[in-house]
Amino acid sequence: MKSLLEAQNVTRIFDSGLLSKGHTVAVDGVSLMINEDKPSITTIAGESGSGKTTLARLLLGMIQPTSGSILYRGQSLTAMDRRARKKFRREVQAIFQDPYEAYNPIYKVDQTLTTPVRKFGLARSREEAQQRITDSLRMAGLRPEETLGRYPHQLSGGQRQRIMVARALLLNPRVILADEPVSMVDASLRATILESLVKVKRELGISLIYITHDLTTAYQASQNIYILYRGCVAEMGSVEKVIKNPKHPYTRLLVSSVPLPDPDIRWGREGEIEAKASAPSAPVKEGGGCKFSNRCPYVMAECRQAPPPLFLTDDDRAVACYLYKAGAPVSGRDMAKSLARD
Ligand SMILES: Nc1ncnc2c1ncn2[C@@H]1O[C@H](COP(=O)(O)OP(=O)(O)OP(=O)(O)O)[C@@H](O)[C@H]1O
Ligand SMILES: [Mg+2]
Question: What gap in Å lies between CA 206 and CA 208, rounded to an integer?
Fold first, then answer.
């Protein structure tokens, strides 16, 4: 198997700012892999502040890891020459949370689309450029005649989001990272945008990394899921396993708070857990134990001593929790590779 995009044991630490001396470990030893030969949809989920956007920015090369590396087609982003870097920039596209920020309000949206065509030399003539633009708009589910020639404020939030999809498609990418626009669009709109991304995967063979709070759409669209808790992978595996039968107490908490559309899924009662309110007064020392231990209803003595490694609970799922220590410990990298292969 060839890896297309890969995070290898990546950590990113931010200084907390001028007034405090502390720091935030936004992403903590995360490994993730996308298979070059098999287009897939991979979800990254977790509550607000769990490190999803930071991981996306790392994968896009917008920020550098504090340790670990990001590889594209087996090559570290930091070791790339200009040509490889340009190819990476074209082939890995992003759709970000708030598309309004991506627009310049004084220019028509056309500019958002013509600029990349020009910058990457994607068309030999005006006609060809125009053709490419209208094709991508249609692929993103927009009618060119209703969108071209307009200013950003003359479009709906959903249309602006779709223009971002069209812009990403223009460049013939291999991977699209979509950081969920929770703030912008309502649930039904989110579902239709996701639908067009699923179509893009199916018809154009583009892989998607889908970053979301929404486990319902994650379950419907993706094959694999990574659950982040305070920068660490709590659980990773096939969505079938992770969402239908969550194991990590944190994943169970996330799943139990979401009404899933599948009647097979039982949440509540037996499976449901009550997490304790986050207890900031007694923080777990960095590196001192499981970051979820303060909230975990199943906390054991060992949870406070050392952070749990990932334990295999199934062929296609691993859980970072001592409740599952009967399973073989597995490294994030090996597990990421195994999920990408399946
Ligand atoms: N540039 C930065 N400087 C300092 N801290 C940062 C920076 N970017 C992110 N953080 C911190 O890192 C942590 C992870 O943030 P991140 O934006 O990745 O979370 P998220 O999972 O995307 O959250 P949300 O679901 O709200 O979008 C947070 O504690 C955040 O405050
Ligand atoms: Mg975010």
Answer: 7
